[in-house]
Amino acid sequence: MTLQAQKAVDGDARTHWLAVRPRLVLASAFMLFLELALIRWTGSNIVHLSYFTNFVLLGSFLGIGLGFLRVGRSRRQPYYSPVVLAALVIVVHLFPVTVDRDTEGVLYWTSLATTGPPAWLILPVIFCAAAAVLMGPAELVGRCFPELPRLEAYRYDLIGSLTGIAAFTALSFLSAPPVFWGLIAAVCYGVLLLPRPRSLYVGLVTVPSLAVVGFLLAETLHTGTLWSPYYKVTYQELDDPSVPSVTDIAVNGIPHQRAMPAAARLQLERQYGLPYERAVKPPQDVLIVGAGSGTDVAIALSKGAARVDAVEIDPKLRELGATLHPDRPYADPRVTTHITDGRAFLERTPRTYDLILFALPDSLTLVSGASSLRLESYLFTEEAMRAARERLKPGGAFSMYNYYRESWLVDRLASTLQRAFGHKPCVDVVSTAGHQAVITAGLTAADQRCAAPWPGAAAGTPPPADDDRPFLYLKDATIPPLYLITLGLILLVSLLAVRVVAGPYRRMRPYADLLLLGVAFMLLETKSVTGFALLFGTTWVVNAIVFGGVLVAVLAAVEVTRRFRTPPLPVMYGVLFAGLLLAWLVPAEWLLSLPVPLRAVAAVTVAFLPIFAANVVFAKRFAETADATTSFGANLLGAMVGGCLEYAALVIGYQGLLVVAAVLYLGAMALLPRRPALA
Question: What sections of the protein cross the membrane (predicted)?
């Protein structure tokens, strides 16, 4: 570190009222909390981000990396961060992007056309704003690093990150609205930023923080708005004399469900009654996946079901159904509710059913931390259909319906059922507008009653999706051009931003191996998130536990490196490659066959062994670097590149990411300096 940079750090150490260790923990916790809050809040108001959640994550990683690289280049406090956050909140509040309910068309894969700023305009704004916002807390974290030994600083950074995840998880559990996120941000800015000069502090910290809290409070108090762990849920009662007692429910600005009487729904749309017509056996035991506000449950009861298991992943949608649905289906003693992931329920339940129904399960959102995995992705794979078949009683049937938007999608799902059940299903295209269809398969061909035989899939229909590539809405094994163009622009902007903020690239040249470590680790983390989502469900609880578990594994690696004599780097690289090989060889099907406790132990071992070894490698290498902030910043920028590289899973599958990670770790090992600079 240069003399000027050290003077800047020493100045912070002397003038800040908070000691370095608690300051580092608080700044790290704030940094991760703010990142998670931005991902959730922007995705709830900009519908494009329901399909591009990863872009906010990429912007956050860029900002965090730039914040570390900026340390020592300026003695000014990062007052820009609260100002940009306030500007972002105001812009999104004034110009939200929602679905236009009066138009039809395809946006990306499945949604309707939108109102508000176009994607080419709002997405760059969101990306750049996320980078600028996160750069501030990251700079505050980075200024603490030179004041402590390398691994001790990293240790407190990880403790802070775990604290940030715990805080956000607690607020998710309480379904806290975003005004609480704004209050926490305001307090953290107020504590971490030095109030000198006072006028500058008031104008650039206090006023923007109050603006953020004010706008988020207005959004929170808006009538008919709830916040679940997944969505911003809005609802309103429709004024339609022909169909009384109808509540329209939207999530993240997208029309999602309608709570209305079962009789009215059956009269208006044939698809809701067809599963009961196509099943030969009158269903007594019914499983409904995607029960939502309860209309499908009410229909099952009206058809004579003696028992209904209603599976819904979102607790707030279930609560709305309990309070607003005119038929009050959830109050019926025949109904048992399960707030969990549908695929996880199928894998775990010992019960069997006369009818299993996938009732419009379209989450319209992505799993945070995975670039292309939607909440319902693992419901529509061939393995999921086989799991559903195993849960049918003799004479039972499986059915699903939705607005599939594309004819090839109907054929793909029908082909998936044909392969899983061993015979052709019934396919009823109820309406060509939006390709509204019902697909039903009996346990045997004799257990279904088709109006007409299905002619089979049209030429060019893609094969069934599987658990390794669960991308139902992706027709070809390619990365969509829109993603390629956007990711290319992100990398270009990132290169320019690094040059402008951090100076010449030669500063990071000695740490090229650390950059590759960051790229590879991001792929490992993605593989862990998707793997645990398959094994235990795509719920927010599982997601939070996985992220927390990754950080615990990283912290354990740091503590082991700090306290014990670990093997040389080449040996640790050998352990890492062994862990990657183990993860490659252990099939998901074998893990799913294990009892849940044993499955958890095996999954943790398989997933976290390479993560632990990779972070021992990083900790040993980081401990001997000459410039803590530059080397750490290079690693974080590598994580951003890894976030872009995640999209390779669309082509090679999630298992293929392990091969890419292995190649990157080989590159990092080859770039190890022969004579490491002394810390």
Answer: 24-43, 49-72, 79-99, 119-141, 153-173, 179-195, 200-218, 482-502, 514-534, 540-558, 570-592, 598-618, 654-672
Q: Is 632 helix (H, G, I), strand (E, B) or coil?
A: helix
| CATH T-level fold of 1-228 | Growth Hormone; Chain: A; (1.20.1250)
Closest CA to 34 of 128, 165, 123: 165
Asked if residue 655 lies in contact with residue 648, where contact means CB atoms within 8 angstroms, the answer is no
Q: In this structure, what token pair is assigned to residue 555?
A: 């912290």
- Residues 6 or more apart whose CB falls under 8 angstroms from that of 76 comprise none
420: which 2 tokens?
């899983």
Residue type at position 644 = C
Give percent of the chain with pLDDT exceeding 70: 92
In whole angstroms, give the CA distance from residue 268 to residue 620. Answer: 66
pLDDT of res. 272: 92
Helix (H) or strand (E) holding 399: strand 392-403
Indicate the residue type of 669.
M
Question: What gap in Å lies between CA 570 and CA 602, rounded to an integer?
Answer: 26
pLDDT digits (tens, 9 = 90+) for 242-255: 666 788 888 888 77
Residue 678's pLDDT is 47
Average pLDDT over residues 510-538: 93
Q: Tell me which residue has tokens 């004041």.
A: 147
Structural domain boundaries of the chain? 1-228, 258-362+382-447
**Cα 376 from Cα 470, distance rounded (Å):** 9
Give the sheet arrangement for strand 232-237, strand by strand: 225-227, 232-237, 247-251, 254-259
For β-strands 353-359 and 392-403, DSSP reports them as parallel
If residue 151 lies in a helix (H) or strand (E), which one and from where to where? helix 150-173
In tens, the pLDDT along 58-82 reads: 999 999 999 999 997 777 899 999 9
Q: What is the pLDDT of residues 572-617, one digit of tens each?
A: 999 999 999 999 999 999 999 999 899 999 999 999 999 999 999 9
- Provide mean pLDDT across the span 509-522: 95
The pair phi, psi for residue 214, each rounded to 5°, is -65, -45
**Which amino acid belongs to residue 424?**
K
pTM for this prediction: 0.89
What class does CATH assign to 258-362+382-447?
alpha beta
Which bin fits 55, alpha (ψ -120 to 50), beta or left (φ > 0)? alpha
Beta pairing partners, 356: 287, 398
Residue 82: phi and psi, rounded to 5, are: -65, -30
